[in-house]
Amino acid sequence: MRGRLPVLVLDAGGGADSTYWNSIIPALAKRTGSEIITYDRAGLGASDEVPPPFRMEDAVTDLEAGLKQLGATHDLVLIPHSFAGMVATYLAIRHPDWISGAVLVDTMVPEFLTDEEVAHMDPIIQPMVAAELAAHPDKKTRTLEAITVAYVQTSHDFNKVVWPTSIPCVVIVSEGTPFPPAMKLDVKNWKDAHAAFANNACDGKLIVAKGSSHDIAHDRPEVIIEATGKLVDRLRSAKTKVNTKAGQLTLFMQYSLYLEIAI
After folding, report:
1. Can you tell me the mean pLDDT for 100-120?
2. 8 A C-beta contact, residue 77 and residue 167
């Protein structure tokens, strides 16, 4: 969707494709006036299936290549959900000069993926995805299986990364988290990890989507819309101030040169 800068890049999580954002895009465009980009990761939506193994580097490179093809390599605001937070973080580390800000929507954050959490979750996730693949052996579930097989290594690697301090960000965490209420420790760890990430990377900018499940875009879309709108407003205001100061400096230099010549 065409619009003004900054460009909003929406990235759906897990096994979701770009259609995940369809219901929120019109209101997001109205609030910000920004150009909006969505896409399907490899193996999802309209994108081609790729053979395993899954490599996070490939997912980041695919997004990088798509943005280059669109000429969208400046003044981006990343809006990832869930798993896509990994892709967004690595892209931000690779190209901090491309990115003006980010709104992280209940994403995976490095602080969550401790050795203990990964060891606990891996034997839970693997049979769940295997059962889904057996019931629905299609492109999507095969892609999810490849991601799941790589879960331990991908998680250990991501636990070590740090969000670039030069990129302002806002963290939105769901009240419900991705876990059922019975998984009390995982629920607590998820919320604590997001609070820690917000303090470490986003100047404490943490928003709790009250009454929302992990699916914030559909349960509480207004939370994402308003958080993004406020970030875009701040970015535009800051750019206006920089341009104004630059213009004032240019006038001062021209006036100084005029006085030199006159004298």
Report:
1. 98
2. no
- Please check whether residue 38 lies inside any domain of the structure: yes
**Taking a C-beta distance cutoff of 8 angstroms, is the pair 171, 194 a contact?**
yes
Query: Residue 191: inside a domain, yes or no?
Result: yes
Residue 192 lies in a domain: yes
Residue 240 lies in a domain: no
Per-residue DSSP letter, 15: T
Q: Torsion over CA of 200, 206, 83 and 96, rounded to 10 degrees?
A: -50
Supply the range of the domain harboring residue 159.
4-232
Closest CA to 157 of 13, 55, 80, 59: 55
Strand partners, 168: none
Q: How far is CA 55 from CA 18, 30, 210, in A?
A: 20, 36, 34
Confidence class of residue 149 from pLDDT cuts 50, 70 and 90? very high
Could you say which DSSP state residue 111 is in?
Answer: G
Percent of the chain with pLDDT over 90: 89
Closest of 60, 52, 98, 50 to residue 80, by C-alpha = 60
